[in-house]
Amino acid sequence: MVKVVPVSSAAAAEAAKLLENIYRCVNIALVNELKVVFDRMGIDIWEVIEAASTKPFGFQPFTPGPGLGGHCIPIDPFYLSWKARQYDVTTRFIELAGEINTGMPYYVVARLAEALDRRGKTLHGSRILLLGVAYKKNSDDVRESPALKLIELLEERGAKVDYHDPHIPRIRKGRKHDVKQRSIALTAKALKEHEATVIVTDHADVDYAFVAEHAPLVVDTRNATKGVMKGRDRIVKA
After folding, report:
1. Is 5 helix (H, G, I), strand (E, B) or coil?
2. Phi and psi dihedrals of 131, rounded to 5?
3. How far apart are CA 13 and CA 9, in angstroms?
4. SS3 content of the chain, % helix, strand, coil (to 5)
5. What are the φ and ψ backbone dihedral angles of 115, each rounded to 5 degrees?
6. 130 close to 163: Cβ distance less than 8 angstroms
7. 98 pLDDT band (50/70/90 cuts)?
8. Which residue, among 221, 109, 216, has the nearest Cα to 156 in the 3D structure?
9. Of 1-5, 96-100, 186-190, 206-210, where does mean pLDDT reach its minimum?
10. Where are the domains positioned within the chain?
11. pLDDT tens per residue, range 171-182
């Protein structure tokens, strides 16, 4: 049931929405930063979050990923940051969170390049399959999706990029990107023909065990392969 919560003004209502968006933006940035730190230490961020979530109070889990998407978190906090400068205020938390979150696609590409290098391959000339281009799972929304930035970065590095998304048969033109691609079928042949498969969006209707069985390399940015047992030596988290 929808509950209407009255506040004193339209400005206060908008500020409440901004607070909710900024809260998520900052906390997602925190776990994204810890993901990079813990990876260097050989610690699995997902295991750490799961363990911390057992605390019955004082902790709310947020999960890392390949970057932010949607029409709220990647944009709204920075509207406030812009507005705050008109009042001679610097919003350091917001701007730092933005730097960390916008850097995640670059981190994913670096992890992918490193994993390919260890297998005697280069990103340049490789065929890369992105699994999911929606900005969140079980959605057909591509607004500000990190997948679009990943496509741009990978193509700049000389990779040939395809994607599969059961919810998005073709990518619609966005605010900054105009990717003219259509989803390919997720078959064993398609997986084997790509040097690497990058899980960008963890849609529930994708068989990740099937992916891990047939893909030469899987780069998992969402912990979607958590329950997959076969082919774990080919899975890299990013």
Report:
1. coil
2. -100, 105
3. 6
4. 45, 10, 45
5. -65, -40
6. yes
7. very high
8. 109
9. 1-5
10. 10-102, 104-237
11. 987 777 778 889
Q: Locate 8 and state its tokens.
A: 């004193």
Alpha helices in the chain (DSSP H): 10-41, 45-52, 76-85, 92-102, 104-118, 146-156, 188-193, 208-214
User: Does the domain formed by 10-102 have CATH 3.30.1490.100?
Assistant: no
- For position 213, what pLDDT does the model report? 97
Alpha-carbon span 198 to 67, nearest angstrom: 13
Name residue 105's beta-bridge partners: none
How far apart are the C-alpha atoms of 120 and 124, rounded to whole Å?
12
Task: Report the catalytic residues.
Answer: 72
CB 101 within 8 A of CB 67: yes
Token pair belonging to 175? 């605010």
Asked whether the domain spanning 104-237 has the same topology as the one spanning 10-102, the reply is yes
Q: Which residue has the tokens 């979607």?
A: 224
Structure token pair of residue 75: 């944009």
The pLDDT tens digits of the residues spanning 112-123 come to 999 999 999 999
The DSSP code sequence of 30-44 is: HHHHHHHHHHHHT--
Question: Using CA atoms, how far apart are residues 39 and 140, in angstroms rounded to an integer?
Answer: 31
Dist CA 196 CA 236 (whole Å): 10
Q: Which CATH number fits domain 104-237: 3.30.70.380, 3.40.50.720, 3.40.630.30, 1.10.10.10?
A: 3.40.50.720
